[in-house]
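Meet the record:
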Amino acid sequence: MKGYQEGWTLRRRVGALLGVVLVLLLGLAAAEATLAAKNRQNIDAVLLKTGPLRVQAQELMSALLDQETAVRGYAVNADRNDLGPYQDGLRREQATVVEMRKLAVDYPDVLREVGVVEQRAAQWRTAVAEPVIATTERGGPSAGQALITDQTRQQFDNIRSAVDNLQGAILEVRKETADKVNATSNVLVVLLIIAALVVAVAGAVMLLSLDRILIRPLAGLVDQVRAVAGGNYQHHIEGSGPPEFRRLADDIDVMRQKIARELDEVREARERIEWVNSQLQKQAEELTRSNRDLEQFAYVASHDLQEPLRKVASFCQLLQRRYAGQLDERADQYIAFAVDGAQRMQRLINDLLAFSRIGRLTTGFTEVDLNKVMGDVAGQTEAARQYADAELTWDKLPVIRGEEPLLTNLLANLVSNSIKFRRPDVAPKVHVSARLVDDEWEISCRDNGIGIEPEFADKIFVIFQRLHSKDAYPGTGIGLAIVKKIAEYHGGRVWVDTDSPEGTTIRFTLPALPEDVAAARAAEPAGGEESTGDGAATGDGAEDAAVSVARQPDGPAPEETPEGAARDSETGGMKETVG
């Protein structure tokens, strides 16, 4: 790991800048909050104190005028009713003075002027109003009017002057408070402008700093990475800027070195794969040539090799018919051996051709109804069943995708084997059934024949492998090999069920149609139970009864043997053989 020079990381730089900006903005916000509070106090003073004080001053003057007017009227008329406004004015004056003192508690000049007004009003009442009222009550209107002189009027004018002074003091306070409101408002505007400038300057500094310490180093790193991505895997990546970017550049360079090493390994592996592919191509060409040779061999076997065999067999049969009984017993035996050998050689060639054609001569997959196939199998094995007094039955079988001739050959081989390998003095019974296992149909062919030992369960599917001599059971030993090849060609498998209590049970699988699998899965929750065993119904339900081909009635026995019946039957153009 490289040692980096001490320096501020990107996070530390951004954090410091944001911290300074935050401190400045918080200081400005605190100052603005303080000024805003003072400004609000001043505005409240203008709206809630000085304004009402002016109104109260006018109200006070109105109350004093009411008193003066009431005294004059009483001095003229001597009517006690004229003194009602005087008493009312006196009460209003007192209430107004109390209210003004409350509003002007923070304004000593106003309180002083209020006191002057209150003092002069009291002096006027003592010197003028009360003597006029008392003299009028005693001496009448003329005596009262005699007391109202220019001097008394001058005293009331002093009251007016005091009230005017009070109004002036209130206006002065109002003006001072309004000036404070304007001053604090101006300061608030200045502070807001300063805050905006701080934000703008901080933004500009942030942009310039990001461009220098983030964008430029990142752009340089991107250019280097693109150069490597373009194929220059030997380009050394170097970082600049904050320590994080330099560490990132070193990490990317380590990754580049790893990728370069892996690419070298991939190139070497590709060269090895190309060499292997070339070898495989040669083997494929060799296999293609071998297949052409095999096809040529099949053609020769089906035409050229069989021609001399037919000639040998024909002349041996002519010898057997013409000279039968004319030569000694050993000669007849030799001729019989020659005829049998030629015929077996023909059967072996035909069976080998049939085996080689499976999957090579294809007609394409179609939907095949195995019930129809079993009907064809029953027709093909009719002679052998009639000879052995055998019974063939099958349950309702599914529809699958495959080649019908091959599937017919498969089932015909299994049924023929079951009839051939029967127990003495026991009528053969062959039953074919099917059940759905996951996404495959498992089809079983069960008989009551001689059975198969478990150790031979795999050997019987090997071509030309026999467990019995040809004298005991005829055949070429290729039937079950054909069964296995057909099943595997259709994507299935075949095996012997070694747990069968009696006879032999051979099972093979075939892929099920998607709709059958979907229908089975949909029926599982409602079914409640699942059928098992070979006798389980596989079609539409329990009403699907097993199809039975009963034993043939006794009648004229055919001349052909089971071997001949199997040998003469044809399945889709391919000769059926019994292994």
Observations:
- The CA atoms of residues 32 and 450 lie 110 Å apart.
- The longest strand covers residues 429-437.
- The chain has 14 helices and ten strands.
- Residues 1-5, 527-545, 550-579 have pLDDT under 50 and may be disordered.
